[in-house]
Specification:
The longest helix has 17 residues, at 27-43. By secondary structure, this protein is of the alpha+beta class. 23% of the residues are buried. Helix 1 runs antiparallel to helix 3. It is globular, with a radius of gyration of 16 Å. 22% of the residues lie in helices and 30% in strands. Strand 5 and strand 6 form a beta hairpin. It has a single domain (5-139), classed as 2-Layer Sandwich (Heat Shock Protein 90). The protein has helices at residues 27-43, 93-96, 105-115, and strands at 5-11, 22-23, 49-57, 65-72, 119-125, 129-137, 144-145. The strands form two sheets. The protein has a five-stranded mixed beta sheet. It has a two-stranded antiparallel sheet with strand order 2-7. It binds adenosine-5'-diphosphate (ADP) and magnesium ion. Adenosine-5'-diphosphate is lined by residues 36, 40-41, 44, 72, 74-77, 85, 91-92, 95, 101-107, 130.
Length: 146
């Protein structure tokens, strides 16, 4: 089934100013993480659904982190499945029959995020949508830009 998305929105004032958020990260792994999460946010969305991408910094907290959130309006993930979906080859039965996949995307995401001293998780309400988030430590001396 081909999905048509109503909107893909970047919700981040910083993207429209000169301020840049800089994290210490492996560019290849970061790309893979974002591609996997975006791919899922479209694949498991409803027809005419929306996807929003947020970037959040917590400059007053120590240690400092930057969080990227990808929010969809899809089927959501039950509380019971929220940890399991990060295991290799795990797919939610109800949706597996009408979407193709291998079940390894999120386990790769988790591996890559943890390799970079970050964290990953999901907040979700069944049939209403999910917000997948990844959190990375901010560095004062920077290597790669985001
Ligand atoms: N944005 C999402 N909304 C609802 N369910 C999701 C979402 N992302 C992942 N899932 C669930 O987690 C499972 C594992 O995801 P993933 O590891 O990317 O494998 P795949 O997409 O190949 O099935 C998916 O099969 C799906 O059941
Ligand atoms: Mg996937």
């Amino acid at each position: 089934m081909k999905k048509s998305l109503k909107s893909l929105k970047l919700v981040n004032d910083q993207l429209f100013t000169n301020k840049m958020t800089i994290v210490y990260a492996d560019r290849f792994k970061l790309n893979q993480i974002l591609l996997n999460l975006l791919n899922n946010s479209i694949k498991y969305n409803k027809e005419d659904g929306n996807v929003e991408i947020y970037l959040e910094e917590e400059p007053h907290k120590e240690p400092q982190y930057v969080t990227i959130m990808i929010k969809d309006t899809g089927y959501g993930v039950s509380t019971e499945n929220q940890e399991k979906i990060f295991e290799p080859f795990y797919r939610v039965k109800e949706f597996a029959s009408y979407t193709e996949g291998t079940g390894i995307g999120l386990s790769l995401v988790k591996q890559h995020v943890e390799d970079m001293f970050g964290e990953v998780g999901v907040k979700s309400e069944e049939m209403a949508g999910s917000t997948f988030w990844v959190k990375f430590p901010l560095k004062k001396r920077n290597i790669l830009c985001l």
